[in-house]
Amino acid sequence: MSQPPPVRASLFVTCIIDQLYPDVGVSVVRVLRRCGVAVDFPAGQTCCGQPLYNSGFTREARQLAARVLDSFENCDYVVVPSGSCGAMMRVFYLDLFADAPELLARAEAFSRRVYEFTEFLTDIVGVAAVENGGTGDARTVAYHPSCHLLREMGVRDAPVRLLGGAPGVTAVDLPNAEQCCGFGGTFAIKYPHISEEMLADKIASILESGADTITACDMGCLMHIGGGISRQQLPVPVRHIAQVLDGGAG
User: Fold this and answer.
1) N or C, which terminus of the chain has less Cβ within 10 Å?
2) What is the pLDDT of residue 99?
């Protein structure tokens, strides 16, 4: 009996992962391929436009968003390892192109193909657990749900289910898990004192959880949390959920 064709997906890697955390992108691709997904990487992709959009530079944000539409025009699925970028592409492009009917129609079709990484694994590929491809030590892991992933994309259960089935990982509850970490992209730059207080609360929750590792589906949050943890010299590594599923929680 012939095997069904593999699910095909195109990776939108995000600026932060591309420029600062390329190992996360490697883990994303490895996990997807381990789950039977044929992954490609459209080379012409650039920023999704969210920083410009959030700062009020609508015209410039449209230029970047239109390039994203062009780059992923013929893709079956677009997988995004970031709730923040995923929300921009699936939700806010519709606002960005609201007064441009042709681009809006393309953005609507595009939005139906955009999936956050864990959401894609559970909802499209049908993965219940990811076979561990690494040799990391057993860890207790707390999960921080990023605001855009939870509130804009509505992804709540997929990351928790995948962590619960990950070999060598014991998932523990994070107190006040849905409280923002204080990053918020440009928010942390505009209101640093408020951001730092929110971050302090988040780190206190991480310590209270007793977790050895903190994970999330968005490297923006993890970069912010990791900076605070580093400044306090705390022995709690931050790992994108793709790294944990790839066996890199240690």
Assistant:
1) N
2) 95
